[in-house]
Amino acid sequence: MKTKILIVIIALLAVGTGVWYWTAQTRNREGAGGPSDSHLPGANPFGASRTPAQTPDAASVPKAPSGEPAVYKGFWMPAMYLDDGQQDMSSVARLKDASANIVLIGPNAKINSAGEARFDVPEDYIETRLYQLAKRYYGAGIRIGFAIETLYVRSFSDNSPAGGPGAFPSDKAGQPGFLDNYNQLVARMAKLAQKYHVDIFSPMNEPDLKLGPAAASKWGQEVLPLVKENYSGKILWKSAGGALDKYNTNFKGYGIIGFDPSPGGGPFEQSMATYRQALENLLTIAQSRAARDNVPKIMVTEFGVWGGALSFTEEQKVLAHRAVFEAAQGKVSGFFALDPPRDLDRGLAGTETLKEITAWFKKL
């Protein structure tokens, strides 16, 4: 749990360093699109000026790829929304080489102790960026998934999480009305997702971890009508995973149950044996919950290595990724591999792990 929160903090810090660069680029450049594939990830990531043309009416928005893939194959990039340089797989060329058909990204939001909610950048920046990303990816046949990363802080000047279940204190997570401002933020983002033809939308990344499973289940049903008023695509419940088999989460009304597994640390063989059994259990529970609540799709929405598993060798990381594909192929509708932000772990580019992911993506 602590490591998952660390990933959030790293993403927030990465975005914070990118905000200044975003402002400078959008005020000083006259370009009209995202970075070309001839640039490394992070080169000129914002390359478009903040003009009215950057936030067009719905008729001018790039068209998303048509149809629906038999299997969604993509990468979760938690620090990528405002900073390409943190994520190797932001490059269209690398995504195409890996046979990916979707990216899962999203901005970072904070909620303070008073229940106020805001993003790290103004919301017009978020729309400008989404327009740029749609231009970059849609023409290459790559869809966009949108998951809001959320962190509780004591104040907007203090980025440290305040403890409790996940990143929220327990007395705040279950407090009536505490998430009302955040829910309105979600509604605005759902409206943007509709405008820019986002394929998958998640109102919060891993709410079971952030809020605690019981509060998350209740909140998930409260926010759902606001999402559906503004967005007609697939709504994702992106779970940390552990709550699937411990709590009776209500998934009714969602289009996708997602879960985010990773092996634990310790001796490798023991860790992997436990991990393989956990994967089987998670898949069984997810299938049962999907049937019970009439949810049409199950996806592995973030997998890789974090926490104690960061000590794995590259060969062991390959085997950890392979275990997910072996367990879930034919049972889920999508796979999203974690592309680690560079402050968390080495990026995927040039690794044996990416070769393994690519081989599986080509088979699926």
Question: How would you describe this structure to a colleague?
Answer:
The protein is an alpha/beta fold. Helices cover 40% and strands 14% of the residues. The strands form two sheets. An eight-stranded parallel β-barrel has the order 1-2-5-7-8-9-10-11. α5 (180-195) crosses α7 (213-230) and α8 (268-293) packs parallel to α9 (314-328).
Chart the SSEs and their pairings.
Layout: H1 2-28, E1 72-76, H2 92-97, E2 102-105, E3 108-111, E4 117-119, H3 123-138, E5 143-147, E6 149-152, H4 170-173, H5 180-195, E7 200-202, H6 207-211, H7 213-230, E8 234-239, E9 256-259, H8 268-293, E10 297-303, H9 314-328, E11 334-338, H10 352-363
Parallel strand pairs: 1-2, 1-11, 2-5, 3-6, 5-7, 7-8, 8-9, 9-10, 10-11
Antiparallel strand pairs: 3-4
